[in-house]
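Sat 14:20. Reprocessing the chain from the morning session after the first attempt stalled halfway. Input below, unchanged.
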Amino acid sequence: MAVSGRRARRIWAVLATSAALGLTITQAQAAPGGDDPFGVRVLDERAHLHEQQGGLSLSAEEEPGEEEPGDGGEENEHIAARAEEYAQARTAPGGIVAPGAFGAAYGEMLNLPSTKGGWRNNTRLPYDADDPRYRDINSNSSGGAGKVTGRVTGMAADDRGNVYAGSANGGVFRSRTGGGHWTNISDELPALSTGDLQLDPRGRLWYATGEANTSATAFLGTGVYVLKDPRHGKFSRRDRVGGDELESTSVNALRFGGDKVWAATTRGVWSHSTKTLKGPWKLEFAPNPDYLPGGPKDDDQSAAYKNIASDIAIDPKDPNKTVLAIGWRSGDTYNGFYTKGRNGWERLTDLGELPTSAEDVGNVSFARSADGSRYYAIDQSPQQMATNPDSGLAGIYVSKSGSPTGTWTKIADYKQLRDSGSALTGDGYQPGIQAWYNQFLTVDPKNPDHVYAGLEEVFETKDGGKTWTVPGPYWNFGFDCWSIDPAKQSGDCPQTTHPDQHAVAIGSYYGKPYVLVGNDGGVYRRPVDGSANADGHATDWTSLNDGTMDALQYYSVGVGNDPDRRGIAVTGGLQDNGQSMLRPGDRVMGSNFGGDGGDTITDPDNGCNIAEEYVYLSVSVTQNCAVNEGSWIDDPSKATSYSVAPPDSETAEARFIAPLSADIKDKNTWVAGGRHIWINTKGYGIRSGDEWFKAFDLGEGRTATAVASSGGKVYAAWCGPCNNQGFARGVAVGNADGTGWHELNLPAESTVPNRYLSGLAVDPANADHVLLAVNGFSRKWTEGPGAGVGHLFETKDGGTTWTDISGNLPDVPANSVVLLKNGTIALGTDLGVLVRTPKSSGWKVAGTNLPTTAVLQLKTGPDGRLYAATHGRGIWSIDVRRLR
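Finished this time. Tokens:
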């Protein structure tokens, strides 16, 4: 019996042992005795609340920021929310970033001096999602994914054992042994987000930057790079193809035909010669060119959604015949398939069973067989996503003529895939529910009828689509073979892959062919013709996440002295990989909380006292690092973590990753920010969400973006609306006891820009001395009223007046700010960490060897080190004394 859905990686889904679980879960289903440790939020209620408040995305009739009806299960909503909010922080108030922004910022960074000292990678070791030490009620351990790392969105492989993996925001890694023993080969580039990786017929590796999914404008890139000798070389800025035409966009796919490479991007379809890499890219087709940068409508609130291309199919018999898959995942009038005719690019209206109407063409993936006899396609349907609560998948199709113009035949729909051994069989979460986000497709080079398809799970057909199996089910919870027994990884179930598939490649090593899949947990491999059990689940997956590819995507970091061992315990919340736990002496990190791990509070005196946010302020607390062997299944009282979510979690009035912090003078006073500012004075002894005190109401439609407090004085930054429909921001200040609260005056014209306020730091010696970090790019690169300039502002009078102290700070999004004991300021940005000492007016790059990726949070540890949570390359630290 399969589990029908998930509470976004929370292990309590396994508790439904007598009936399949849907995502609209009742309290009685959630846990033994009817006690839900997470505070169940029924999806219908949550969707209604988000629709009222202005939610996540855009459909054909909606403006950006409104809820998409029928987005599916809660995890589907989580992905959309995460992507949208990540984009909001960087693009407000206008909603678009002009080409050249990241490149210019990177150039400014290169001109800055560096401080002494080097960064230490604290998390470059294996991370075991099934660690038997951490099988508490909030963990996913025993799900079957094994060792994991961050999201991998590009894969390429040759026939000599060379494998290339492109991570979401950590760059490209190379293995010479068929996977594992990874080395990064792209750290000299200004952008480390991956859209696609392709080996061309000459053996060159093409790296398209800008993550390959339609998540607004998150994880922007700086173009396409080519490495002539990928087996030995490394990418450099000199390897970029063309000019800055593809900067500040995402490249969803690269395809080759004749002497030309095609790029499907979020700003239309472009092409370039493969013979010469110089000269600009040529814009081949943009359905709505007025919305492109420089066009008369480039400041329109929907501009980022108007020219999205997902893939390109090139006829193997005639490279001049090309089909473009164009369209925004939630639907727009321009969605469809296009080919070049006598009058330019024309919409195709008859492809057989492959839909061509705008409402049924969304995110599309193509794959061609090596012999040219087959073309395959996955199509996500905006109409399905809007009306079908179970799936957004239109289907999987084949063109047996080998031509992308068809005729196409449907060979699978979501019901057929569901009934083929899927773990997703219940109402609200079935195969293809995230088809707008999860897609890959590839054909066995030796067998045109043997196809691997990736959605949330890995699917396989060996007979051209007549029958399907699920070699990589979502997880093993709910299958009869599953057990939480710490002596076993996942009971008697074979290892599966991490869910949420993004990339695929087929390669070989010493003549043995294998398939590699990239997903939200990293890279997994099995033989192309692998073995499976009676249920069609593969028995031969190998996790290639050995710790050498540290692509972990942290939102937060927590540091404290270990209570039982000499040294420091390091923890942090991760995108789709829960909370990692690293204690002194560990050779493998464990996962003590599942799901998307958000903000973190850790006791500096006892690193096993941890408060961990799931999402939307769904906070849990533990006082033993959440060590548990799983005995809570039979006796709920043996759980070692507790749900303590503030009420804004129940009402959906908090951001996806909401701010959570402890008072810098009182570790037992916590501040949590949603629509309201919540205070907890019981510290790690809190056991219920009812124990939070509501100190202040920011107002309807507003949500906190950063909080900080010192000695009971609290500062809270907010936005609302947070999208480009009348974007507004501000700062409120008051006391933890609820007195003295008021809004500060922040006129954008003369002081703080009208952009996203992302970080606060309070001087422990003077609570009226505060630093404020501002995200996004300055007005040169962003549109919208009050975009302004500057990224760091200071007040010495409690917020009455503010001064721009950005100085020569590069124009790059700022995420987190820390005021060190010696008065040095440390700023975490999308391109690393910058510091400024009290005696200097200029900025320096902090230390050496930190990858150029987004640093979302900075914290100091009791060991005198500064810790950086990067969203793509793990947690790093440096000795504070060297930052001068």
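The mean pLDDT is 89.
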